[in-house]
Structures are given as structure tokens and as C-alpha cells.
Amino acid sequence: MSSPEGEFPDVRASELATKSLEYLQSGQQDDAVRSLRGALSLAPKNEAVLAAFHSFQKDQAVCPLSKLCQKLVVENDVAAGENALRLLRDPSSNFHTTTATECIELLLAHAKNIPLPIGGKVLSEILRASRSGREHMADSIGENAKEMLETLAEIGGEAIDGLVVTLLDPAAWESEAKKKRSIRDCFKLFLETLNTGSGEIEAWSTRSIARLLATHATELHTFIGQASLERILSMLDIRSPDDLRSHATLATARFVETDESTAGSMLGKFISSRLAANSDDDLQIAFSATAAIFPLVPGVAAGLLLTEGFVEGLAPSLQGRSSDVERAVLEMMSAACVDKASRAAISIHCEAYLEAIIRGDESFKGVASTILAKVRYGSGDPGVAPKGIGELAAVFREMMIKDDVGSRDSAMEGLAYATLKPSVKESLVKDKEFLQRFLETLKDSVGKSTVMYGGLTVVANLTGYLPSLSEEQKRVAQLRNYANSMPQAKPEPDPADKDEKVTMRCKVLLEGGVVPALVACSKRVSPSAVAIISSIFLSLSKNQKHRGPVAQQGGVRLLLQFYASVTGNSEQDRKVKLSSSHALARVLVSTNPSHVFGSQLPVASAVRPLLALLETNEEQNDLLPVFESLLALTNLASTDDSTRDLIIRVGWSKIEETLLSNNIMVQRATMELLCNLMASPSGVAKFADGSKTASNRLHVLLALADAEDLATRRAAGGALAMLTEWDKACEAIVRREKGLDILLGMAIEENEEMRHRGVVCVRNLVCQKLEYAERFRRKGAIDLIRDSLRGARNPEVLQVGVEALKALMEG
Asked: Which pLDDT tens digit goes with each residue over 158-172?
């Protein structure tokens, strides 16, 4: 019989093995491993311990995602679902093909019992993360789309999102025909669900319809009948959640774009029927829908608005109506201002009504003020300040300094119009409280496109410089004024729009934190907003003192992102490329590259945007972008050989063209860039590889060393000083008829800097070969250099000159 002492380790080991399995079941992996390790150390051959060990091995073979999905389904464990989401969103996670399909089938089989909304989120995330999962779902949809849609609806709207991801993935389908058929089937089912559902079902149906129309409108728009369209349009009601309204707007937009004529007729029928019904609900939906479709089909919407008696009767018809109806009418008026005739009608028939709201209704003061600003700025003569715009600006200012976020958001669009007036720009930029609230609101406008666009327009108005006009352009403008019967128009700009005032406004905005606000906006930004931000940076960087703050606060990285984001060739795309690269050039002219670039943002990333500016046609008269790009490239070329080599490799042909420019400033800047590029062997090779092309380049370089412009001569002399350190370059110079004369001429110039470069060149050659020294002696170099050194004050010039004389006399 064994002693109790011999039994004790087995008993304790069994307890630990049991405990480890309990930990394993509850998901406490670390505790389970610790307990099992203790059991194995006490009794490695104990049956209970070995059984626990084998259970561990089986558990380790099961994918963590499968275990979490099982816990979610079997135990309704929401925490397991959250962990599954984290695992699926981890880019380092890997899942076997069968794991994704098994988890999908598990979730579908228990669709009625899975907790909402976590089940739908997990299924959707599996479909986003796993191609094999999407392929499996595609096969299932192809077999019975209706049954699959009903099952997914039980799991939640997020699961439907996963279905749409599958429909839109070409790689998930075995054939194009099957994909198209499934998209059509599901689209028709979404329309059916839309017409019969409500609440969350209505939301995910609209979202799915919008997403499918966004990419397949041509094939799908014919399935949308009057009833379906009216259901979508009813979601444009201002009382609808923002997310639902945005998807309904997208669906309407794609439908209209595909067949504007049919869509216009259907839209008109819907709005007319709602207006005729005349209940508060019907009117609210009609006005909300009209506001939403104005930017999409302004002709159709304006046709309704300009129907005889419609605008005239708007204000009187609101008597006794709910505030929601009045709000919808005001939003419709605001949207209608995109159309000139509609603006004029509102100005004539509704101005008194809008002014009354501003005086007495705090709820709608902001939108009414915005409409008046649009009407007055959109309808008046150019250059004539509209009446009352200063008073409207005061209203927007009061709204902006309130604590209410909605009030501040509403003020943005109105301010975009009010800040077109120079005096308003000046008054607002001097208001510290306003500026602080304004920039906070702009920074928080991500996801609010109207607010962001309005805020960016305000900044653009405050920072925008007037274009520089040549004398000829000024005369043309005067002639145009006379032709328009406006001889009294002033050729001089408003004092508040003069450069010094704009520069001061830029300074105030920079100190207030406008760059961080612009960086925050760029996280989710439309192409049109990118265009505005790029132009803002171009203005902010015009003054040299402002460039450091722009660079320090993230402006360089953002400008590079904007430049890289443009892939098209539309007029807007070209403007974004030009303004972002030009602003980048301005900043890099005045900034130490080592303070801006590093491992996360290499210097090389700025080279191509800067070189692109050299494409500007000299006949366009505006050579400032070219000039500033050359200065920025010169700055970058001072960093290292890899940057210099990239500039040479990518931009050499453009650089050579600008070297021959008729503009002396452009030619000088190019020569200064070449001087820095000469520090690289690749730069030297362009002038000294023995080819005829290199010989021609050297001829130009020597000619520029004898140019009238001192700065150009100085840069060319610096390039020659570095070039003559190479024997091949020296040989090429000696072969030129006047090569030695030009170098000797530099050495005896009165200008100390030119003299320094000249004696360096002479020293480099005479120390290379006795033959070169002899040639210089025959030209009287000893006496000429000796006389030149008598007037030298720079110790370096004297030292190099003495070395040159010594070599000349010894040779």
C-alpha cells in the first residue's frame, strides 16, 4: 500500500489539471497554461494531467476566430464577439480558408439567436477580411438570393453591408454573368424591402441601394419605379437622421445622373403631388426633397420653384405651419441660390420675410442670414458691396461665438459669403474670440461637408491675395469697365485687399492655429476641398516669415499628400498639382531641409513635385513658380548625393531648358542649382564625360561665367571651381578656345567672391599638369594674379592665390 506522501503529488496534479481546463473554457489562456505547467511538473504521467494536456493540444489546433464565434453563438457572449472584431481588424491576423467559411455557416445557422448588433458586425467583418469568405457568400447568394437576404436581415443591417461588399468584389465571383444576375436580384429585393420596411430595415435598404447605384447605375436604374423613388425621396426629410439622408441623396444623385430626363419627370411628379396634398408632413417632405435635388438637377428644381405664384406665396403660406415646415422652406431657399433666376425671385419676393426672421427668430436667424448673403452677393454688380452684408456678418459672428455647436455650424456657410467683403475680412480677423471659435469649429468639421467647405472658403477669402496684373492686363480691365458702362470703376483694389493687409491676416491666422485645423480637415476631404486647402497654403506661404510655421506644423507633409493624391488630368486636378507644388516650393526655399525631412518623410518625396513646376510655359508670363521651384531644388541639392542624383536623373532635361531661359532671374536660379549639383559625381559627368553634349554644356557654363549678371557669374564660377577638381573636366576646359581666358578673367575680377572662384579654378588646373601651367604663363597669368592679390582682403583668396602662383612659377 502506497504512503500518503506518494499520493499527494498525484492529487495536487489532478486538481491543477482540472483547474487548467476550467481556465481554458473561460478563455483565461495564461492561467490555464500556468496550471497545466504546474501539473506536469508534479506528475507528468498522471492520467488526468495527460488528458488535460491532450485537450490543450486540440484547443491550440482550433483557430481563435472559430472559438470566439462559437462562444458568441452558443453562449451569446457579446465580449467574445467584440474580441472577434478586434482579431478580424488586426492586419497581422491570418485565417485558413476553411475557418472563414465555417464561421460564416455557424453564424448563418444561428441567425435568429445571435445577439444584435454584434452578430452582424462579426459576419460583415469576416466578409471584408476574407476573400474565401466572400467567395463562399457569392456561391450562396447565387443559389437563393432571397433566402440569404432574409437570413442576413435577422443577424442585422451590418450583415447586409457584408453582402454588398461581396456583390461589389469581382474576384469573389466565378463568372461575370453570375455576378451581374446576383446584383440585379439583390437590388430588386432591396427595393421591395424599402417599400415594405421601416426603421433600421429602411436604413440598410437605402444604404445598399445607394452603394449599388454608385457603381452599377447604368444596369440598375430602370428597376426604380415611381413608388421606389418616392420612398427614397421621402427619406430626404430634414427630420431623417443625417446618415439616412446622405444615402438617400447619393441614391437620388446616381439615379438622376443616369437618366436626367426620366428622373426629372418623376421628381416633378412627386414634389407636385406632395405640395397638392398640403399637409404639414407632405409640405415638409416636398420642400426637403426640393432642397436636396437642387444641386443635382437645378433645371428641374428651378422649374418648380419658378412656377407662377410659387415663390410669391411661400412666405404667406407658412402662416400657421409648424416650425419644421418653415425650416424645410428655408433650406430649400438656401439650396435654390445655386440658380441665378431662383436667387432673383427670392430677392424680390422673400427678402422682407428673411429680414423679419433675422430680427425676431433666434432658431432660424442663421439660415435666413445665409440666404440673404447668397442672394445679395450672387445678384449684385461685380465690385459693388451688397447692402447690409456687414450687418449679416455681425449675425454670423454672434452665432460663431456661441457654445451651441449647431449655431456655429450654421454660421459657416453664411460667413463664406460675408467674407467676400474686404471690410468684413478685416473686422473678423481682429476678433480673437471669433477666430478661436471659428478655427475650433473648422477643426471639428470632419464628416460635415457643408460646414467644412464653408469654413475652408472663409479661410481662402481671408488669406487670398489679389492676382498681380501686368500693365497690359490693367489696361484691358479698364477697357472692359468702359465697355460695361462702368468707367467709374476704380483700378485700385480696396485697401483691405492690398498685399500688406492680406499678409497681416495670414500672420494672425497662422498664430491662431490655422495649419493644425487644415491638417485635421484633410483626414476626410473631398477633391474640391483639397483644391481650396492647396490654394490656402499657397497664400500662407507667400511671405517668407510665414514659411517656417507652415513647415513646423505639418504643412509640407500635407502638401506632398495632396500632390500624390491627384491622379486625373481635369482642370481642377491640374490646379491642385500646381498650387500644392508651388506652396511646397515656397516653404522649402526658406526652410532647412534637415528640420523638415527625416526617415518618415524622405527628402526625395519633394523632388518630383518641384520638378513638375519647371514644365510651366515661359509664354504664360508667370515664371514665379519656376523660379521658386529652382530655389527650393537648390536648397534640397545641398543635402546629400542621393538627392542630387535623383534631381539629375529625373529633371536634367528640364533644368537644361531653364538654363537657357530669357528671364535673367530664372537663368540665375538654374545656375545656382547647377552649382550645388556639381557636388555630385553625376553632376560633374554631365560636363566632363568626353561626349559632344558634355562639351556643349561646358561651353554654356563658361559663357555664363562671363555673363553680365554678377549672381549668375558667381554661381557659374562656383560650379567651375568644383568642376576643375576633376581631371576630365580640366581637359575639357583646356580644349575650349577661350576656356583659360575666362578662368583667368574671373581670377582678376574686382568682386572678391568672383576673384576667389577664379583663383581656385586656376590653382586646380596648374596643379593638375605642367602643360596647363605653361599655357597660363603664356597668357601672363603670373603678373595678372599677383596684381589681383594685392587688392585681396580675404585670407582664403590670398592662400589659394599663393598656391596658384607657386605652381605657376615652379612649372
From this structure: 899 999 999 999 999
In angstroms, rounded to a whole number, what is the distance separating the alpha carbons of residues 558 and 782? 57
> Burial of 17 by CB count in 10 Å (0-12 exposed, 13-18 middle, 19+ buried)?
buried
**pLDDT tens digits along 490-508:** 556 788 889 999 999 999 9
Amino acid at 527: P
pLDDT at 405: 84
Closest CA to 36 of 64, 60, 50, 5: 50
The three-state DSSP-derived secondary structure of 75-103 is: HCCHHHHHHHHHHHHCCCCCCCHHHHHHH
Of 537, 539, 455, residue with least CA distance to 504: 539
Phi, psi (rounded to 5 degrees) for 229? -60, -40
Helices 432-443 and 422-429 meet at what angle, rounded to 10?
90
Asked if the model's pLDDT at residue 653 lies above 60, the reply is yes
- H-run or E-run covering 511: helix 499-512
Instruction: Give the burial class of 227: count Cβ atoms within 10 A of its Cβ; 0-12 exposed, 13-18 middle, 19 or more buried.
Output: exposed
Q: Are 609 and 580 in contact (CB under 8 A)?
A: yes
Sign of the CA dihedral running 447, 450, 451, 455: positive
Q: At the fourth CATH level, which superfamily is domain 224-375?
A: Leucine-rich Repeat Variant (1.25.10.10)
**634, 599 in Cβ contact below 8 A?**
no
| Rounded to 5°, angle at Cα 446 from 441 and 450 | 75
Share of the chain above pLDDT 70, in %: 91
CA–CA–CA angle 12, 15, 21 (5° rounding): 140
- Break the chain into its structural domains and give their ranges: 4-61, 224-375
DSSP 319: T
The pLDDT confidence band at residue 647, using thresholds 50, 70 and 90, is very high
Structural element, H or E, at residue 590: none
User: What is the model's pLDDT at position 503?
Assistant: 95
Average pLDDT, whole number, for the chain? 86
Select from 592, 588, 662 the least CA-distant residue to 631: 588
Q: Count the helices and strands in the chain (H runs, E runs).
A: 47, 0
| CA pair distance 455, 478, nearest whole angstrom | 33
C-alpha cell at 186: 439583390
For residue range 621-645, list pLDDT tens digits in order.
678 999 999 999 999 999 999 999 9
Helices 514-521, 527-540: crossing angle, 10 deg rounding? 160
Q: Output the nine-digit C-alpha cell for 768.
A: 593638375
| Of 406, 387, 323, 403, nearest in space to 361 by CA | 323
Burial 569-608 (b: 16+ CB within 10 A, else e): eeeebeebbbbbbbbbbbbbbbbebeebbeeeeebbbbbb
Tell me the pLDDT band of 89, cut-offs 50, 70 and 90. confident
In this prediction, residue 382 carries a pLDDT of 43
**H or E, element range at 441:** helix 432-443
Looking at residue 6, its pLDDT comes to: 47
| Separation CA 793–CA 338 (nearest Å) | 70
User: Which residues touch 250 (CB under 8 Å, ≥6 apart)?
Assistant: 210, 213, 214
In whole angstroms, give the CA distance from residue 687 to residue 593. Answer: 27
Whole-angstrom distance, CA of residue 120 vs CA of residue 158: 5
